[in-house]
Automatic annotation (TrEMBL):
Keywords: ATP synthesis, Cell membrane, CF(1), Hydrogen ion transport, Ion transport, Membrane, Transport
InterPro entries per UniProt: ATP_synth_F1_ATPase_gsu, ATP_synth_F1_gsu, ATP_synth_F1_gsu_CS
Assembly, per entry: F-type ATPases have 2 components, CF(1) - the catalytic core - and CF(0) - the membrane proton channel. CF(1) has five subunits: alpha(3), beta(3), gamma(1), delta(1), epsilon(1). CF(0) has three main subunits: a, b and c.
Compartments in which it is found: Cell membrane; Membrane
Membrane-topology annotation of the record: Peripheral membrane protein
Family statement drawn from the similarity comment of this UniProt entry: Belongs to the ATPase gamma chain family.
Protein name as it appears in the record: ATP synthase gamma chain
General function of this protein: Produces ATP from ADP in the presence of a proton gradient across the membrane. The gamma chain is believed to be important in regulating ATPase activity and the flow of protons through the CF(0) complex.
Length: 283
C-alpha cells in the first residue's frame, strides 16, 4: 500500500499537470476564435472563384491549359495537411486513417506533407516524401498557400504527377471536424460550380488568357482554404482534448484525496489502538 507521502507527491504532480492542460485549453480557445472566423470567411471566396472558373472554362473549352490536361494515371500525389504539434486528441490519427487506405502498398503514390506529425509518421514507415512544409499549422498565411500551390502545379505541368489529391480536415464546429479528400488536379471544371449552371461572361482580352491567370489563383485559394480549415480543426481538437484532460485530472485528484484520507484515518486508528493497548497492559 502506498504511503501518505507517496500519495501527497502524486496529488501534487497531478495538480501541476492539470494547470498545464488548463492553460493549453485556454490558449487553444483564444486562438480558435480567430481561426474559426478566418475559416468561415474564406468559404464564400472559394465558392465564388469556383463558380467563375466554371464559367471561364466553358468559354475556353479548347484552351489546352496544362492544369486541365487529363492524362493516363500512372503517378498519383497526395497533398496532406496535418498538425505540427500533438496533444490534439484524435486529430492526427483520424487524418491518417483517411489517407492510409489510398497510399498503403502502392508504388505509384507520391506524398507532399504539411505538418510535422504527418511527415514524421510517413517518414518512420519508409514512405518517400517529395515535399514537406512545417511550422505554420496553427497560423497559416496566404504566402504559404501560394508556395504550396505553385510547387504542386509545377510538378503536374512537368508530368511528375498525373493527378493530385488534397487531404485536410474540414471544420464544422470545435467538436465536429471531418477528414476530407478532394481532387485538386487536373481541375474538373464540370463540377467546380456544383449543381448550378455556370454564368456567361464577356472576356477581355480572351477567355484563354483569363483562364491562364485564374487557374493558379484557384489552386492557391483552395489550398489556403484547406489550411484555414485544418488550423481551426486542430485548435478545436486541442481545446477539447485539453478540457477532457483537465476534467480527468480533477477526477483523479478527488480519488487520490479520498485514498489519502482513508490511509490517514487508518494510521490514526492504529495509533489509538496501540496507545489503548499499552495503557491496558500497564494496569
Amino acid at each position: 500500500m502506498a504511503s501518505t507521502r507517496d500519495i501527497r507527491r502524486r496529488i501534487k504532480s497531478v495538480k501541476n499537470i492539470q494547470q498545464i492542460t488548463k492553460a493549453m485549453k485556454m490558449v487553444a480557445a483564444a486562438r480558435l476564435r480567430r481561426a474559426q472566423e478566418r475559416a468561415n470567411s474564406s468559404r464564400p471566396y472559394t465558392d465564388k472563384i469556383r463558380e467563375i472558373l466554371a464559367g471561364v472554362a466553358s468559354g475556353a473549352k479548347e484552351s489546352g491549359h496544362p492544369l486541365l490536361a487529363v492524362r493516363e494515371v500512372k503517378r498519383t500525389a497526395y497533398l496532406i495537411i496535418g498538425a505540427d504539434k500533438g496533444l490534439a486528441g484524435a486529430y492526427t490519427s483520424n487524418l491518417l486513417r483517411e489517407v492510409l487506405p489510398n497510399v498503403s502498398g502502392r508504388d505509384d503514390v507520391h506524398l507532399l506533407t504539411a505538418g510535422r506529425k504527418v511527415r514524421d509518421y510517413f517518414r518512420r514507415r519508409g514512405y518517400t516524401i517529395d515535399q514537406q512544409y512545417t511550422g505554420f499549422s496553427e497560423k497559416p498565411t496566404y504566402d504559404i498557400a501560394v508556395s504550396m500551390a505553385r510547387d504542386v502545379a509545377s510538378a503536374y505541368e512537368r508530368g511528375e504527377y498525373d493527378e493530385v489529391y488534397l487531404v485536410y480536415t474540414r471544420f464544422f464546429s470545435p467538436i465536429n471536424h471531418k477528414p476530407t479528400t478532394v481532387k485538386l488536379l487536373p481541375v474538373d471544371t464540370d463540377t467546380a460550380h456544383g449543381e448550378e449552371q455556370p454564368r456567361e461572361y464577356i472576356f477581355e482580352p480572351s477567355a484563354e488568357e483569363v483562364l491562364g491567370l485564374l487557374l493558379p489563383k484557384y489552386l492557391e485559394t483552395v489550398v489556403f482554404g484547406a489550411l484555414l480549415q485544418s488550423a481551426a480543426s486542430e485548435l478545436g481538437a486541442r481545446m477539447t482534448a485539453m478540457g477532457s484532460a483537465t476534467d480527468n485530472a480533477q477526477e483523479l485528484i478527488s480519488k487520490l484525496v479520498l485514498n489519502y484520507n482513508k490511509i490517514r484515518q487508518a494510521n490514526i486508528t492504529r495509533e489509538i489502538s496501540e496507545i489503548v493497548g499499552g495503557a491496558e497492559a500497564l494496569k
